[in-house]
Write a structure and sequence with these properties.
Layout: E1 11-13, E2 25-27, E3 30-32, E4 38-42, E5 48-55, H1 56-64, E6 68-74, H2 92-96, E7 99-108, H3 112-125, E8 133-134, E9 141-144, H4 159-168, H5 171-205, E10 210-212, H6 254-269, H7 276-286, E11 302-305, E12 310-313, E13 322-327, H8 334-342, E14 346-351, E15 363-365, E16 368-370, E17 376-380, E18 389-391, E19 393-395, H9 396-399, E20 404-410, H10 428-432, E21 435-444, H11 448-461, E22 464-471, E23 477-484, H12 488-494
Parallel strand pairs: 1-2, 3-5, 6-7, 10-17, 13-14, 13-20, 14-15, 16-19, 20-21
Antiparallel strand pairs: 4-5, 7-9, 8-9, 11-12, 17-18, 21-23, 22-23
Length: 496
């Protein structure tokens, strides 16, 4: 660095060395909280060493005596430097009258609380941005390399920053900004044109077709987090559900789960606020991290895997008739049969436009859901669009003749079911007086707009948390599990 900066004035400290030729000024100190004189530390062999100690304020104010520090490097060998209290507004550096332009910070893996305080202070003060984070090979240490960019008040403090602001206001600065904006606009428009052309072409080839899922040849999709260890489940020994009062010893706090989950999810989905395609494409690879939040990870989700796909469910904690409704049932009914073995009073409803009978369901209809009672054209993807089948439909409002659906499974075979209008607050289900506790939903990659219209309100309402995002190989189908954490009956039956 001395070669790049001809007028570099460097200062350094180390608790383990008396001199260092690369620094103009070098001190054999460990940085401490107070001027205690000595500080107990350990060397590389684990031996206790008593080292000379100097407080942070004394070091910067009485030894370095610099009001501006262009580059501050903080390593874990620096001592007991409480860095989190120095970089915030009205922090220690501001009180000492010291401005730090950029800094590199190295923290230990078990230093999470202190690092969290630092990040909170910086986000609140909006004075630094964080770049170039990396992890050292030693898993016991986490190295964060953070650079500070220029602050607004710098122009009033130093000539070098006044010079920077004069450059910002120059014609070259604005020309550069204009060129960047033009470049981004051209690329954005060309992308939109290609997308529209592609959509128009697909629509022209297959008008009014709703593509059903392919039942054969699918590989089991990846899962993001394993299911918690199962405990023996004996439905017959559970007490009857009493919805008039909360459980005296609830297993889970639904409100705390929702607050924790959406604190995670809202930050992730913020980047897709105006990008439905981006949200759906990235869904399995981003939102899964919220499954691993402390309270969410404790929800006893059970996987019902039929070899082609996975359905997820939380089993009841009390006895009450459970209703399973499948829109677009498949011939593979292993998941349904496994649930029946656990829940003796399970009531099942199913639809499928391509098959007239399914023994796994107590009530079954060969129909597709639509907004009216007319026929719609659906194509089984196994036929490669060769045969178009006009199938009978049923009005989706008239189909749901129940007051509570415990488990709702939705697949592309459901038909033209507008789920985005049903599941939100003040939606069709609420108008019909139907409450839904759990949902397994499977959508195609072409459903980005519908998915966007569903998820954004759910984040605001905090009624359903969405877990276990998955994608089939190639990303043709995306699956997600939703759990109602707001309805009192659903919470009482499944979380308390």
């Amino acid at each position: 660095m001395n070669k790049k900066f001809k007028q570099l004035n460097s200062y350094g400290t180390s608790a383990y060395g008396f001199k260092h030729e690369d620094y103009d000024h070098f001190y054999n100190y460990a940085i401490g909280i107070n001027d205690t004189g000595l500080q107990t530390v350990y060397d590389n062999n684990g031996e206790i060493m008593e080292l000379k100690d100097v407080s942070v304020s004394s070091f910067f104010k009485n030894i370095i005596k610099q009001n501006i520090i262009d580059m501050l490097w903080i390593n874990i060998d620096g001592g007991e430097f409480e860095y989190w209290s120095y970089f915030s507004k009205k922090g220690q550096f501001e009180r000492l009258g010291i401005i730090v332009c950029q800094f590199n910070l190295e923290v230990e893996r078990n230093d999470g609380n202190t690092f969290s305080k630092l990040i909170s202070n910086l986000l609140e003060s909006e004075t630094y941005i964080f770049l170039r984070s990396e992890i050292k090979e030693n898993p016991k240490q986490l190295k964060m390399v953070n650079y500070q960019l220029l602050r607004n008040d710098f122009s009033a403090n130093t000539e070098k920053f006044k010079e920077f602001y004069r450059y910002r206001k120059s014609v070259f600065y604005y020309c550069g900004i204009i060129l960047i904006v033009v470049f981004l606009a051209v690329n954005f428009l060309s992308y939109d044109d290609e997308t529209i052309d592609s959509q128009e072409q697909n629509y022209a080839e297959h008008p009014r077709n709703i593509v059903a899922e392919q039942e054969s040849g699918q590989k089991l999709p990846f899962t993001t987090t394993p299911s918690p260890p199962l405990i023996p489940y004996k439905y017959e020994e559970l007490p009857a559900c009493d919805f008039s009062t909360d459980s005296p010893k609830p297993l889970h706090n639904a409100e705390a789960i929702a607050n924790e989950f959406f604190k995670c999810a809202s930050m992730i989905l913020l980047r897709f606020a105006m990008n439905p395609q981006g949200m759906l494409f990235n869904w399995p690879y981003t939102i899964y991290v919220c499954d691993e939040e402390d309270l969410s990870s404790r929800i006893p989700l059970i996987s019902f895997d039929n070899g082609q796909k996975q359905y997820w469910a939380v089993l009841p904690t009390c006895q009450e008739k459970t209703t399973l409704v499948t829109l677009g049932a498949s011939e593979n009914t292993k998941s349904e049969e496994d649930i029946k073995k656990l829940l003796k009073d399970l009531e099942t409803f199913g639809t499928d436009p391509f098959h007239g009978k399914n023994n796994a369901y107590g009530k079954f209809n060969q129909v597709a859901l639509s907004t009216d009672d007319h026929e719609i054209s659906m194509v089984d993807s196994n036929d490669k669009f060769s045969d178009k089948n006009f199938v009978a439909t049923v009005d989706q409002r008239e189909f749901f003749n129940v007051t509570k659906i415990d488990m709702l499974w939705i697949t592309p075979n459901a038909g033209n079911f507008k789920y985005e209008k049903y599941l939100n607050k003040d939606g069709e289900f609420e108008k019909m007086g139907v409450k839904v506790c759990q949902i397994n939903i499977e959508i195609t990659k072409n459903d980005a707009d519908k998915w966007f219209k569903l998820i954004n309100p759910l984040v605001q309402e905090k009624r359903f948390i969405f877990m276990r995002p998955m994608a089939t190989e190639g990303g043709e189908l995306i699956r997600t599990y939703l759990l109602n954490v707001a309805d009192p009956e659903c919470v009482r039956k499944y979380l308390q």
